[in-house]
Amino acid sequence: MAASLVTRGLINEDLFFENTGELWVVWQKFKHLAPSTRETLKNPHFWTNLETVAERFEKWMNKRAPEALDVLRKIVVGTPPPK
User: Fold this and answer.
1) Distance of alpha carbon 61 from alpha carbon 56, whole angstroms
2) Is residue 48 part of a domain?
3) Is residue 13 situated within a structural domain?
């Protein structure tokens, strides 16, 4: 639901992204399931708000802290960050 608020412009993106990164983490965990889930459910729009917000968050973060998401992605997917 929170992702749909962002995609419809009902909450300021900067405000949302400054206070949450959880949707991006969730998408990192689930994005590999999206194609098969969309096919199984016969719903090509399933999780699209989550996907859209995660992509926007990446662009937003990369402007502010270009290397941060690479480190976080390694943590989220189970690879330890570089020392």
Assistant:
1) 9
2) yes
3) yes
